[in-house]
Each structure stands twice: as structure tokens, then as C-alpha cells.
Amino acid sequence: MTTNTQYKSDLDIAQSTQLQHIKEIAQSVNVNESDLEMYGNYKAKLPLNLIDEEKVKKGNLVLVTAMTPTPAGEGKTTTSIGLTEGLNKIGKKTTVVIREPSLGPVFGMKGGAAGGGYSQVVPMEDINLHFTGDFAAIEKANNLLAALIDNNIQTKKNNLNIDPRTVEWKRVMDMNDRGLRNIVSGMGGKAGGMMRETGFNITAASEIMAILCLAKDIDDLKEKIGNIYIGDTYDGEAIFARDLNAQGAMAALLKDAIKPNLVQTLEGNPAIIHGGPFANIAQGTNSVIATKMGLSLTDYVVTEAGFGADLGAEKFLNIKCGYSGLSPKAVVLVATIRALKYHGGHALEDLKSPDTVSLVRGLANLEKHIENVKAYGVPPVVSINRFVSDTQDEIDIVVNRCEELGVRVALCDGWEKGGEGTTKLAEEVVAAVESCDAKYKPVYDWNWSVKEKIEAIARKVYGAKDVEFLPKAKQNLKKIERIGLNDKPVCIAKTQNSFSDDPKWLGRPENFTLTVREIEIAAGAGFIIPITGNMLRMPGLPATPAAEGMDIDNNGKITGLS
Length: 562
Known about the structure:
- By secondary structure, the protein is an alpha/beta fold.
- It has three domains: 10-131 and 260-435, P-loop containing nucleotide triphosphate hydrolases (Rossmann fold), CATH 3.40.50; 134-253, Domain 2, N(10)-formyltetrahydrofolate synthetase (2-Layer Sandwich); 450-532, Roll (Formyltetrahydrofolate synthetase, domain 3), CATH 3.10.410.
- The chain has 19 helices and 23 strands.
- α19 (471-482) links the parallel β19 (466-469) and β20 (513-522).
- It is globular and about 70 Å long.
- It starts with 9 loop residues before the first helix and ends with a strand.
């Protein structure tokens, strides 16, 4: 990836590309036009009956993750798309399967999630904006449950005796709006319902999003929705969404959203985009359905998991793979020279300047991620996502260290060159895939206690010395045991900026204590969420939001989108 002003913007590149009709993309993976539900000329939904479990078992799944990122991210999506182009160039029939962008980051600071430069999925504007309406459907299903809860508290008929003080279910919207984080609902007298404190989360943080991305089909979706834990009665009995008979109507709202979306890369290769849970508070990866769809249609699938490998990859392997039976045959660790220098102590605002001393210190972060991937029993491949400011000396240091560790490594020039810039990476990935002859090894056994599972991740993956459970977390552990959820995997909510729960502790922290302040229940999604640090589920906009630089003209041409 580069940042030189001589290059076109991502949007300019996307808008100058001649797209193929989606029927042609479908035909390239032997999908009949009659199976497509088209949204215009360049987007379509795929029916679930195209999934072939026998092909899924035989397919080659490649997971793209990263070292601990800088605030701007290290280019996992760009690498995933570029690697797909490269694999196709060397004769491996490949689909990229990634998450849908959230409008919060699109209009905020990070931008969209359609890749960048010459490694993009298109139509870029549609994908980054409303796309096929999946996020809107998830939002409506989430908010229907919120309305049903408040209605049951208000009405005397079929009243479940819900104690409103125990209800933690919040409404959602797909926008960064800090003013809605904490609100009081039910104002306006008796007709407005019972007044109580509540709030909004961003749509990507909804448990409905997590459920959609783990569901196998409509029946499984309904069962998972019915399992959503709502709160307790005044008598202390647990109440679930099924007690409100909510699952049927909510699943009906999701009847189209459950189907994965087919689009294309800039080089005309198939891309499937579906779902978008965040990785610091949920499983951080696209849907099981989408991944299996890709493996049913092509020999290789490249997919990605959000943030660093301590978050996205850990949850991909311990949660998504645990529920789906999937097992990657290679893990690509995206590293950048800037991130290595940052973790070695170089100033964030000056990462373009050469600094081999900080770079060498920062290698400790990458090395820990390499150790973790190896511990899963999956071969790692380090992908150095090149920036124009990188010096050859800096690149050589990283390559030499990887070779000393016996780890495959390749430069990635997908941003600047598309598939031509990733063929060496593609060859290394194929070699890693062909060397993998075993299923991944999870970090913990689901039958362990929740406490033991948290401690296993903290010590083995993060490198913590101890785990401290604050009083509320201890109460939550007792409640989890009381309602019979001890056998669920754990999805730790933690900062993406550090292995520890302190975002300022860079590099490879050691001898630290991970503090669990509370533990939330996502019984519908099928996991438990230990909360560390101060995690926000409704982000705010930066001082200068990306939205301020966007516009559209009378011809419908959008500018300023990234």
C-alpha cells in the first residue's frame, strides 16, 4: 500500500473500472442466472441451497489477520482482496469472502471496508453505503425485540413480570452517534411506557448481527433468536426472546439478509460480502453461510477477521470454527513497517520516517502473533503490506527475522499493483496450505468453566500473568452458571490496540493482569462476553468526520468516499 499523491484515490480507481454484469461473475463459478436475486446489474444475493457441505470439507480456507494494528489499520481487507487476485493469477480458483462495511466508520475516521487501491471489491459506493439492505434489516429486527420488551413491561395482558432494571437489550442504528449511548426512554407519561435508562449501540454491535453470522439456515436463525437473554423477572427467573414469541417475526425481517451477497473484484473475480460484526466486542468475521458458500463455489477462499490476531483470529478459530466445523489451512499475518515501528516506540504522527531501532523492538509484537498462530497448529505466512515510505533496510530486517523463525514471508503490493503485486504472496500461501495436514487446535475446551476459558485466552493468547475478576464479574459468573450457560465459548471484549486491556501498552506486554469488570450474556449468539477496559458499542465521530468531505452531483457521481 502507498500514500503518494501521484496515485488515484480508491474511489477514482473504482469508478474508472468497467464492471462485468453480475450474471457473468455468477457464470464464472457455475451459478445459474435463475439462482440469482439481482440488485441491479452488479450485485446479487445467493440462495442457501447452493452450499455443498462435501465441497466445503475439501476446500482450502485461508484466514487473513494481522499484528496489533495502528489506529488506521494495517490493510487486512486490501490484502485479502489482493491475495485473491494473486491466487487467481497463478491458476487457483479463488473467492474472497469478507464483511460488509458499517456506516459508522465510513462517515467517521477509518473509512469503508471495500479494500483500497487496485485491490478493491466493486461497486465500491454501493458496498460502502446501503448495499443490499442487510444492516437495515438487522437494525429493524433488533429494534422490534426492543419494542416487544417495552410493550410487555407496559401491558397487563401476557405480562411476563419483567424487571425493567435487569433489561440490557438496547436499540441500534448504523451510525456513530455518541449522543444516543445513554438515554432515558418511556418519557411522556403513562402512555409513553415505563421510564427507564437504556441506550443505543451501533448496528454492527447488535447480537442479531452476531447471530446472523453464526446461523446455518432460517430454522437455526429462529432458534438462536429465541435464545436471546433479555433479563429477569422480579422473582429472578431468566427471560428469553422466545418467551415473547419474538423469533418468528424477527427472522421474517431477516429473510433476505441471511442470504450472502455476490459482487466482484476489480479484476473480475468473485467476491462474497456478508455480515459485519466488530471484532473487539463480537466474533469479527463474515457469516458461516458466506464462507461455506465460497468454499462450495471455488477451490480456495480467502477471508479475514477483524483487528489483530489476538481478537479476530482468536474468535474466528475458537467460536466460528467451533460452531461451523471450518478449519483454515493457512493464516496470513498482515504486518506493516509503520506498525512495527509504532510498537517499538516510534511516534504515531511520524511513522513515515526511517527508524530501524524502533522497528527491531516492535518485532516482538509480530513474533507473539506468530507464536499464537503456530500454537493453533495452522501454518502462518507473514505478508508485509508495503507503503511508499518503507525503506529496503526496514523491509530486509522483517524478512530476515521471519526467515530466522522459519516462517514464510512475502511482500504485498496489492494496493498499487493488484494481482500482479501479490503473486509471490499467493505462492507462499499455496505452499503453506499444501503443508497443512491437520485441523486447528482450539485454545480451550468449551466444557471448561467460563473462568477457566477466560484465563486460558488471557495467558496463552494475550500473554497475561494473572486475571482479576471484579465483584460484578464474579456475580455474573454465578448467574451464568445458574441459567446453564457455562458450556458456551467466550468472546472477550478488549481493546484492539494492545495485547493487554490497556491501549497504551504497546509491543509485547508481559507480567500484566487482565481485569474483567463484568461479563455479558449473548445466549442467542451462543457465547459469553467478558468485558475488559472501557469498551464502547456506540462510537463517536472524530473532530473532522469523513462525511464532511463527501458529496454527490446531479449525475449521481459520489466524491470523497474512501
